[in-house]
Amino acid sequence: MALNMDAIGKMIGPISREYTWKDAALYALGVGAGFDELEYCYEKDLKVIPSFSIAAIFDFLSHIGVQSNVNLAGILHGEQELIFHNPIPPEGKLTTQGKIINYYDKGPGKGALVVGESETFHSNGKKLFTSRLTIFSRLDGGFGGENAPKKEIMFPNREPDFVVEGSPSKDQPLIYRLSGDVFPLHVDPEFAKMSGFQMPIMHGLCTHGYACRALIKSLIPGQPEKVRRFDCRFSKTLYPGKSIKTLIWKIEEGKALWKTVNAETGDTVIDFGVFEYGDVKEEKIMFDGRVAIITGAGGGLGRVYALDLAKRGAKIVVNDFGGTRDGSGQGASGPADKVVEEIKALGGSAIANYDNVATIEGGKNIVKSAIDAFGKVDILINNAGILRDKSFIKMEKENWDSVLNVHLNGAYYVTQPAFAVMKENGYGRIIMTTSAAGLFGNFGQTNYSAAKMGLLGLMNTLKIEGAKYNIKVNAIAPVAASRLTEDVFPPDLLPQVKPELVSPMVIYLCSEKCPVNGNIYNAGMGAFSRASVVTGPGTVIKKDSGYPTVEDIVSNIDRISSIKDAKEYWQLNDLVGDIVTVFSAPKTEAPKPKEQAKAEPTQKTGFDSVKSVFENMPKAFNADSAKGIDVVFQYVISGTSGGEWHCIVKEGTCTVKTGVHDKPTTILKIGDANFLDMMNGKTTPMQAYTSGKLKIEGDIMKSQLIQKIFKIN
Ligand code: NAI
What we know:
Blueprint: E1 11-19, H1 21-30, H2 52-56, H3 58-68, E2 75-84, E3 92-105, E4 112-122, E5 127-137, E6 162-166, H4 172-176, H5 189-194, H6 204-219, E7 227-234, E8 244-252, E9 255-262, E10 268-277, E11 291-294, H7 300-311, E12 315-319, H8 334-345, E13 349-353, H9 360-374, E14 379-382, H10 397-425, E15 428-433, H11 436-440, H12 446-467, E16 471-479, H13 503-510, E17 520-524, E18 527-531, H14 550-561, H15 572-583, H16 594-599, H17 610-620, E19 631-638, E20 643-650, E21 653-658, E22 666-671, H18 672-679, H19 685-690, E23 695-698, H20 705-709
Parallel strand pairs: 11-12, 11-14, 12-13, 14-15, 15-16, 16-17, 19-22
Antiparallel strand pairs: 1-3, 2-5, 2-7, 3-4, 4-5, 6-8, 7-10, 8-9, 9-10, 17-18, 19-20, 20-21, 22-23
Helix pairs in contact: 7-13, 9-10, 10-12
Bound molecules: 1,4-dihydronicotinamide adenine dinucleotide.
């Protein structure tokens, strides 16, 4: 089967993987770290070995294999280059996207190279590393392509500056594989023999991890965050239990060449290594060219946001009506003008606007003044606010209305015209200002609490409507000393409750880097945390006859009320989807929310039993693509709904029978659930195979025909 030329340049991913410190520590143990390098193994101040990166995105490698259509029977990881942009945090979510960038032809019988490139981002929004990997495919050469450019490294003609010994144990692959590469070649003695080895071999990437540790220890002890580039070629297999040596030549400040050899035989197992190291230049978050509107920016928190954004290059519309603390009075231009002067004195660019956010015209004018002065709106911080506190019984309609008008209606009046401009430009960052009074309640603030929670409802839906235009909407619940809170904080606490201690969070949410949408952050006194609306797992009271009774609720109230293992929902449909799942037959797929369904286009058939797959197999058979093919696939499906089936493909026909065939060409062994996942498009055969879930015996190469001759999903 030929390499898939169409796959070059096609985007693969995004593929995401969550990890915790335990994954990073398990990897460290897998590549030989221990008490000598406790910083890699102990959750207290844990540092992540940079080579963890490639183990953590192992799935991406399988995708390259599948997309390129390489012959599985003859593939090896050839070369691996990693370029680090930021240190790997001890936990979070990695999201990888990339593509096949080229195929090289070493000639008939000599093999081919598949080169893939990817970038991985952390859930904190930072780009962590770029990976360039080469798969060497022994059986795909001779397709008529160009040969790869020669890559050779001349090691200095002198003794290495450092020699670091490593002693992988006989059981090392058994630990290493738990980091994700569960290919049977590293664990299954029979599989290893079938592949021509005396016993299971070391993972090349495990030895790679030993080398990475050795280089850090020699050149930047205790500072893995300084690794910038780590490049090498895998040249020979190694059996577990064999000692290795990493030879290191420092050729200039910040750069070394290295190789890893088998200490017993002197054979080079990893060759042509390059290691670069040094400090990362911290990327400053800037807003050059961005236009920000901040309402109520004539004082308090809004003023600090305006100054901070202006210092980082944004052009600012300083809106402030200039009224009293309770919103009464005619307003004044002084507060907004003063902040504009401050910004200009710093060399920034700003204009003042004195409109009242609590009117529809006011909202339109604020946005218009941004367009007139700077041509667009990229950022909107809905910050203007007043207070009219009274206990609920005494809360007159006027006090109720005026607070809702400024906070909630004001956000609607300004956000709607701003959103229209942002949508047009395909970019926007909107901040709603909520409050702990709304999130949790505060005596005497029913009007204010209702308005502040209303803003979260507005955010929750706007985040969905804005997502496809790169408009992100988040909320801040600040705590700061200001005119609004002048009677709240005792004077000696004032230095600790400055608006400057809230602002960094808001500025981050306004930035291009902001990775989140629809989140609520508490910020004050330098403490930052996320608040969230969650739903507990609850319980289902199903009755064969009739409805649940009030007494059923009484006896289940603890389970219904529990938020242990609670879950966040992105949107209403996701919650409905979960409820529907509970009421559907156990094996029926819950309807997916639209966005998710789009992201998983392979989910088409939805087989609910192993048997139904085999019943449907003749219908999925494509006689045209089976011309000249003569094979028998034997399926051995383990598990309660498993069994044995075989499929005979001959002279353009397909026959499926239960039981064992006496001369199968290829035997496929897999568990029932994994088989259904594969047939329902949740995993590909390549992923199932490389992760060890699918075992293939007999003619492995023929198994690749399955995808060609059956259109199952
Ligand atoms: P602040 O009183 O210093 O600032 C609010 C600004 O909004 C004032 O300059 C005021 O003139 C302006 N404003 C009021 N009504 C307006 C209108 N209709 N149109 C245009 N501008 C108007 O108060 P602070 O503390 O800086 O409050 C900012 C935001 O943070 C408010 O939304 C407030 O509810 C919220 N917040 C503040 C907390 C704190 O601890 N300071 C706690 C929770 C929320």
